[in-house]
């Protein structure tokens, strides 16, 4: 009987070991499966996060592109507005000179019986030099235009076109972003040529420069000077509108 018991015991032990082996394999497979599921979950979460980040970056890129386009559009519109304003004043300058020339010629004609006046400067030559400087300004050659207008007013300080040249000298300095020199040039218009058609525009230009320099009080005084001194001029109307906004 003893050998039989021993054999049964050995068989039982083998079965127990076999069952334990089965349990160990199942536990290992379960752990591997759990690990795989957790890993896949982490990868899935990371993928979603990357997709969301990519979407955010794309939205930001689209917004930046939209803003850049808006900036370019506004810059173009501003430059176009400046060009239209410049062309308007240039055209106005040309038209005014057509009216001023006959009037000036009549004023310069000697009265009957008066002593002959000294020889006047050549009007054609004067106009030619003025037009040369003005064409430089039209071509956006502001440095050359400033030099041309400066030479003109020195050569013809009392000439018919001197107020215009002095005014455009100020504009040429302003176009070069030199507000101090622009103010100096326009101040000559408002003082020396205060009765000219360019004086109210010069005051308006001074106000613009003072505002850009951060001198709000000086800008206001210039605008008020336009309204007070030249109330019916187009510049005065523009000055009133600007004063309303201050």
H and E order: HHHHHHHH
What's the alpha carbon Rg, rounded to whole Å?
44 Å
The percent range for helix content is: over 70%
Unreliable spans are 103-119
Distance between the termini: 121 Å
CATH T-level fold name of the largest domain: Serine Threonine Protein Phosphatase 5, Tetratricopeptide repeat
CATH architecture group name of the largest domain: Alpha Horseshoe
Q: How many β strands by DSSP?
A: 0
How would you classify the helix and strand content by structural class? Answer: mainly alpha
**CATH homology superfamily name of the largest domain:** Tetratricopeptide repeat domain
What is the mean predicted local confidence, pLDDT? 78
Quick recap:
By secondary structure, the chain is mainly α.
Describe this structure in words.
The protein has 246 residues and is an all-alpha fold. The protein folds into two domains: 20-80; 123-244, Alpha Horseshoe (Serine Threonine Protein Phosphatase 5, Tetratricopeptide repeat). It has helices at 2-108, 123-138, 142-155, 162-175, 179-192, 199-212, 216-229, 234-244. Helix 4 (162-175) runs parallel beside helix 6. It starts with a helix and ends with a helix.
């Amino acid at each position: 009987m003893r050998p039989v018991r021993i054999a049964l015991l050995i068989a039982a032990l083998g079965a127990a070991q076999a069952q334990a082996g089965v349990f160990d394999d199942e536990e290992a497979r379960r752990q591997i499966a759990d690990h795989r599921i957790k890993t896949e979950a982490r990868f899935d979460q990371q993928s979603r996060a990357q997709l969301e980040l990519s979407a955010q970056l794309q939205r930001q890129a689209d917004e930046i592109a939209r803003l850049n386009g808006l900036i370019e559009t506004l810059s173009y519109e501003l430059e176009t507005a400046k060009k239209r304003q410049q062309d308007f004043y240039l055209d106005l300058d040309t038209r005014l000179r057509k009216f001023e020339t006959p009037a000036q010629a009549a004023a310069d004609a000697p009265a009957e019986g008066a002593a002959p006046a000294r020889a006047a400067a050549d009007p054609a030559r004067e106009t030619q030099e003025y037009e040369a400087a003005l064409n430089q300004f039209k071509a956006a050659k502001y440095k050359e235009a400033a030099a041309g207008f400066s030479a003109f007013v020195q050569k013809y300080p009392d000439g018919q076109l001197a107020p215009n040249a002095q005014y455009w000298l100020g504009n040429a300095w302003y176009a070069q972003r030199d507000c101090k020199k622009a103010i100096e040039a326009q101040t000559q218009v408002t003082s020396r040529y205060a009765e000219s058609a360019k004086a109210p525009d010069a005051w308006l230009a001074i106000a613009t420069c003072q505002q850009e320099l951060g001198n709000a009080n000086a800008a206001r005084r210039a605008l008020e000077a336009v309204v007070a001194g030249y109330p019916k001029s187009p510049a005065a109307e523009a000055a009133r509108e600007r004063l309303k906004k201050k």
